[in-house]
Design a protein that fits this description.
Distance between the termini: 44 Å
Helix content: 25-40%
Largest sheet: 8 strands, mixed
Strand content: 25-35%
């Protein structure tokens, strides 16, 4: 069994790993002890406000750390290799949409799902493959960095920036436009749409001709768009709806299946879907999603 997550309590001397929800004595488990010692040393030398969320390599494994409360930490194991997008379990039609060259002209792609649904994995795979295929320059702004994307991928090149606070995240977004080379296809990855500022920045960059990819928490495609609109403007004003309809190009919703692969649905934003967003008629998007799903199934069965 491959461990994916840990909960490490610095005061009780106990740790729990998942899947399986297995509790261990930290002093008797070598990995748990290694993680405990790393966190103990870190908390002794760093203020709590600086270690709320971060990523680090301990031993030979990279983890994403989240402080749940004083002395209790959540750790997510970050795979050392970025999987190929074709190997994640997405249907071929979803992969084709994510790699569509039409989006090189700019726009916003949202990868949505619940916490732990593999959104960052899909995003890293898509970024690498798009750089391989189309070249250009990618800048990522993450809090924290999860997958290593720095450097060349085919003819494309990527730089990653880890923001260490909300203020730093905002500051890095402000610098993003100036960080792109002239006359070069630009791809911006914002680690998460988390507030009004990131939602608005994603839209502004997308309208300016950059391809922006980001993640957002949601239960389904419609709730992903609703959540984005609420972050853009709590009142869902006509300006927020119009801007979202103008920049949004594709929404993916994903979750893990029992085989450890990703199942996903998608909604490419057609003129009809954009009209529904502009008019605040998000409930009608269910029909558009059903139509996309029907077309996917017909294509899989080879029905004309």
């Amino acid at each position: 069994m491959t461990i994916t997550d840990w909960r490490v309590d610095l005061t009780s001397g106990r740790a729990v790993y998942f899947p399986g929800c297995i509790e261990v004595d930290i002093s008797e488990h070598p990995v748990a002890k290694q993680l405990h010692d790393f966190l103990s040393e870190l908390t002794d030398s760093t203020s709590a406000s600086e270690i709320d969320q971060f990523s680090a390599t301990v031993g030979m494994t990279r983890y994403r750390f989240q402080r749940l409360k004083p002395s209790l930490y959540s750790l997510r194991v970050v795979p050392s290799e970025i999987p190929e997008i074709q190997d994640l379990g997405h249907r071929s039609s979803v992969v084709k949409a994510l790699l569509d060259p039409v989006y090189n002209a700019g726009g916003l792609i949202l990868i949505s799902g619940a916490a732990g649904s593999g959104k960052s994995t899909t995003t890293a795979s898509v970024i690498r493959e798009r750089l391989r295929r189309f070249g250009g320059y990618c800048l990522t702004i993450e809090d924290p960095i999860e997958y290593h994307l720095d450097g060349f991928h085919g003819a494309g090149y990527c730089n990653q920036i880890e923001a260490d606070s909300t203020e730093d995240y905002m500051s890095q977004i402000k610098r993003a436009k100036r960080g792109f080379p002239a006359r070069t296809p630009g791809l911006l990855y914002l680690g998460e749409i988390r507030d009004h500022y990131t939602a608005e920045a994603a839209a502004q960059m997308a309208v300016a001709g950059f391809l922006v990819i980001s993640t957002i928490h949601s239960f389904n495609i419609v709730s992903a768009i609703q959540n984005y609109l609420e972050l853009m403007d709590a009142e869902n004003s006509s300006i927020a709806r119009y801007t979202t309809a103008s920049c949004l190009k594709l929404v993916i919703h994903q979750r893990w299946n029992q085989r450890g692969q990703i199942n996903s649905d998608m909604l490419p934003i057609s003129d009809q879907a954009a009209g529904a967003i502009k008019n605040g008629a998000l409930h009608t998007l269910k029909d558009a999603i059903a139509a996309v799903e029907s077309n996917i199934r017909r294509n899989m069965l080879g029905v004309a």
